[in-house]
Every structure is written in structure tokens, then in C-alpha cells.
Amino acid sequence: MGGIVHVRIDDRLIHGQVAANWSNALRIDRIMVANDEVAAxxxxxxxxxxxxxxxxxxxxxxxxxxxxxxxxxxxxTERVLLILKTPKDALDLIKLGVDIKHINVGNMAYKxxxxxxxxxxxxxPEDIENFRELDSMGVELTSMMVPDxxxxxxxxxxxxxxxxxxxxx
Length: 169
Prior knowledge:
Elements: E1 3-9, H1 16-26, E2 30-34, H2 36-39, H3 42-51, E3 57-61, H4 63-71, E4 79-84, H5 87-95, E5 102-105, E6 115-118, E7 121-123, H6 125-136, E8 140-143, H7 154-167
Parallel strand pairs: 1-4, 1-5, 2-3, 2-4, 5-8
Antiparallel strand pairs: 6-7
Helix pairs in contact: 4-5, 5-6
């Protein structure tokens, strides 16, 4: 089977966990990062290319170009790991016609103003709304840091964290 074999939100993008664990477990030929800011930053693209495993191609492109390439079947002969920085990137790709049924949420680092959902997953109010929209579209949202970790539904974690946040606990 070719094309997009796994979609992951991970704000670190390409790093050791992705390069070693996910690429090997999924037998990836290509890692695609679809994010407009990354696509415009030559320094970041150079660093990300160095982090990719030997023999794995990289595409560090805008969401619009990613959608056009995916929808045209350009990657149908490759096994592609699609990495996104935010749930908004996923929504944008879906709105551009990319068929995404499952998203694994990896690391979303803590910053001021974010709500901790579970270990290594911290979200803004905008992220929560975007995750809710993805969920309402029928996209399965799970959270796994590494491939051999047990998969679990992310939405109950988000709702529980939001309740806790609103109650001030």
C-alpha cells in the first residue's frame, strides 16, 4: 500500500523519535512536513532534512502544495509519513481535499497559556476547537508517542483537561 500511511501532529516535526521509531515501524519511504512557516524557512528545512533517516526522502512543503501533490496521486508508489505542526494544519489539508481519517497526536510542547491534556500534549483554546472540528468530521484522534505504545482516544483527555482547567483545579 502506498500514499499516506500515517498522519502525525508533532510540533518537533522530524526528530529522533520520528526518524528512528516511526519511520522503521511504518517502513516509510518519505517524510512529508506540510506547514507553511516551515516551507518558507530554509534554515529549518536544512535542519529537518539532516534529521531524516538515511534513504528516506523528505518533502517540506506548504499545505497547498502538499494537498495538490497528494490529490494528484504523486506519492501513491511511496509509503509516506505526513507530519503536521498543529491540528489547524490537518483541518486546512482536509479543506483542500486531502482524505484524512486518522491522526496520531504526538508532542505538542507546553507554552504559557496552553492546557496540559496528557504527557507531552498541551493545547491552546484554538487547538481544542480545531480538534473538536476534526472529531466532528469523523477523524479518529489518538495519542501515541512511540509505535509500540497503546493507542488511546485523545478527545476524552481534551474534554477532561478542559473541565479541570475551567474549574481552576
